[in-house]
Amino acid sequence: MIKSEQKPFEEILGYLEGENKVFILGCDGCANASQTGGLPQVMEMKERLEGDGKKVTGYCVIDFLCQKALVASRLRPREAELKEADSLLTLCCGIGTQAVAATVKKTVHPGCNTISLGGARGEWQGSERCMECGDCLLEYTGGICPLTACSKGLINGACGGAAEGKCEVSPERPCGWELIYERLKEVGRLELLKKFIEPKAYGKMRPRAELLPTSVWALENRD
Amino acid sequence: MALKEALDSGKFAVTSEVGPLKGTDTTEILEVAEVLRGKVDGVNVTDQQSAVMRLGSLVTCHLLVEKGLDPVFQMTCRDRNRIALQSDLLNAHVFGIKNVLALTGDFPTFGDHPDAKEVYDLDSVQLAWTVRRMNEGYDLSGNDLEGKTDFLIGAVVTPLRDTEAAFELQLIKMEKKIEAGARFFQTQAVYDVDAFDKFMKRAEQFKVPILAGVIPLKSAGMAKYMNKNVAGVSVPQHLIDEMAGTDDKTAKGLEIAAKLIGDLKDVCQGVHIMAIGWEKKVPEILKLAKLNGG
Questions:
Q1: Contact B176, B215 (CB under 8 A)
Q2: Which among B129, B163, B233 is the top mutation candidate for probing chain A, defined by the most A β-carbons within 10 Å of its own β-carbon?
Q3: Do A181 and B188 touch (CB under 8 A)?
Q4: Residue from B104, B175, B227 whose CB has the most chain A CBs within 10 Å, to mutate
Q5: What fold characterizes domain B3-288?
Q6: Which residues pair with A62 in a beta bridge?
Q7: Does residue A99 lie within any of the structural domains?
Q8: I want to staple B71 with a disulfide (CB 3.0 to 4.6 A). Which of A36, B11, B50, B64 is the partner?
């Protein structure tokens, strides 16, 4: 289980600036349970976007957006709606957004922030892709998370240590920033790389107070 | 001449570099300071270079100020969070340090404490931006400072990269560093002036002084080692052959460095000489290159 919360609507509208047509993707897994990306939230988002003059070319709620193969197979029959859209808006965790961005050669906007569950994330292992930072940056990095794809977690660009596209810290891994560059080039959004991102609010990675009483730790320590 | 004046004057600027030792012995640093005084415009002091624990850059810079040099305080984001970085910037100002070089920093696994927890709370662009804010009189949280800093902000760029993505990413990040407040750049070591010139043709639009990195070769083996292990460094075969074919490696290494500097005079705004143990030979290199009167 991964917990998410929707980004403020104004922030999402900012992402969609200059775009008129959008395809909305929801997730019937954790995002549905978080009430951020199930069918009701997708319909609500559709209505709000249409109210703001956007055309929603289509929408789809997939069981687990984090399953890349499933995303590809479920989106195949929706090609026409996807083609018409300028971009996709994903209402799910950071892993789902990255799975969609890796599947579709279009700009993929994150609609949610993935927030910390304090380690109680269940059986599905996704920490190598999403750190539950609570302040998703995938909008600016082509749907590839710089916190997890870059060994140093740099958020304003590459360090200069890569050789032949491989990370100098872990030579078996590709340089995350070179992946981000290639992805943004593919979708024609290289200008996003010039955006300065201010120091990150790492405090948002701490488990939230309202979650702590529900954790196993809290239950064990109760009298 | 102090670094800022040298850069403002438009002269071909020269900086060099010292690396503190592991321990409290400052003899070598103070001897180097005597040799370099009046010969270079600024002296970088490395910050736990290669992630190897040693005497710090801050105190060493302070020693150089006392010796009448103009140190460049190198700061990496690897070992300190934003509280410690900002506090050390205040410390540096009080110590009379005028220049800061904002760096990301090598990962701990490259050094002698590979199990250390890396920080990277800020990145190099954000660090440059932090220094600018402190120059303007407030900290990262927007609180006013009782007495602000006044640093000249520098940054680094690696001009020679092996993929299109890596090369473009360097230029984009350079532009971001300038927007964040960087006013001069020092580069990774350059050996191929023509290749470096191609980078300069792209970078000159930014109109900030760029000091090309120069590392004197000590042997053919050193050149081959760097080609294999140091990202962004490429020593051409003809230089490796020259080093391999000489009886006096020291003289040849200094001669090659001086010639490089001569060639770079027409291409960029200065050089940053990283002598790596040969700090006391820097005046000799400058004399051979007919710079600063030697």
A1: no
A2: B163
A3: no
A4: B104
A5: TIM Barrel (3.20.20)
A6: A27
A7: yes
A8: B64
